[in-house]
Design a protein that fits this description.
Layout (H helix, E strand, L loop, with lengths): L9 H33 E3 H25 L5 E5 L5 E4 L1 H17 L4 E4 L18 H6 L5 E3 L3 E9 L1 H5 L7 E8 L2 E8 L6 E5 L3 E2 L2 E2 L9 E5 L6 H9 L4 E5 L2 H6 L2 E2 L13 E4 L3 E2 H13 L3 E3 L13 E2 L3 E4 L4 H7 L5 H4 L1
Parallel strand pairs: 4-6, 12-13, 12-15
Antiparallel strand pairs: 1-5, 2-3, 6-7, 7-8, 8-9, 9-10, 11-14, 15-19, 16-18, 17-19
Length: 344
Amino acid sequence: MAPMGIRLSPLGVAVFCLLGVGVIYHLYAGVISNRLSAFRQRSVNLRELLAVSVEAAVLGGREVKKVREENVLMEKSKGKTKEGASELLTLGDLRSHRRMFNLLRNTFPDVLVHSEEHDNTVDKDATWSRDIPADILDKVNGRKEVPAESITVWIDPLDATQEYTENLVKYVTTMVCVAVEGKPVIGVIHQPFSGFTAWALVDGGTNMGRRSTYSINPPKVIVSRSHSGKVKGYVQDAFGNSTTIIPAGGAGYKVLSLLEMPASKSDTIDQADIYIHVTFIKKWDICAGAAILNALGGRMTTLKGEDIDYSGEPLNKGGLLATVGVNHISVLEKLPSWDPEDKQ
């Protein structure tokens, strides 16, 4: 005898197939939706990241200023640099770090954030205000997004700590930089004691500009006052003994000295034509300035003219040349050969 079976009409077959498709859809729709949601979360809008970076730098700057005004710096040494200078840590560094780091990590949890400081304090309530400053809204297109895994954020909660302890506050900045695939694309340099914030998104917009004139015959060269190494002899070998050398604190300040500052802030910044550094320097010190210079057609390289990769290892051992408004290659050609071990 033939096995018993169920015979369906063509309509029944169609209904059965539709029911099967419905079951499969409901089983996998949630999975697909979750994956799409995760993809959207891992895609970061650069205008929003710029706005959060500005907010983080400003909030960190408030902590820096408050600690200095209350004169409770609680300074201590983190150790020595290779050239023997003390690396100082203050309460201003720590409180600024907590505000900046937690705000950025809470807003963009899939993004890698490197800070100069390390602290176990977690502030889950640090949230972005959702405010995008008017000049950013006006100048920056909001459609550009990049994968979160391609981003490295570098923050310096207090640049020029040595000068901060000496109350030379004009040199002090807080900085945020965003690198995509190792290239600096967002730079924020905030001056807590003047209230000015410089920002730029490469190929997007900036609130900064270049001055009308620069010179390299000879230039005014800005250099580090607290991590100088043998920079004076190096500069004079390149440009002559009559070259004006400006010692200054803070890499952020030195980059601002190359730029056109607002008239109300111009008297707080030295004016230089190029920035040279010969000792080792960390990427959270220089990344924000590199992004702003790039946005204005300038360059920041090693003293051999090599581009600096702003991913991975934080130490730049190649020295530094920063320019805008002059021919970077022409300046490189004037520089003597450079050995990092000889200049520390």
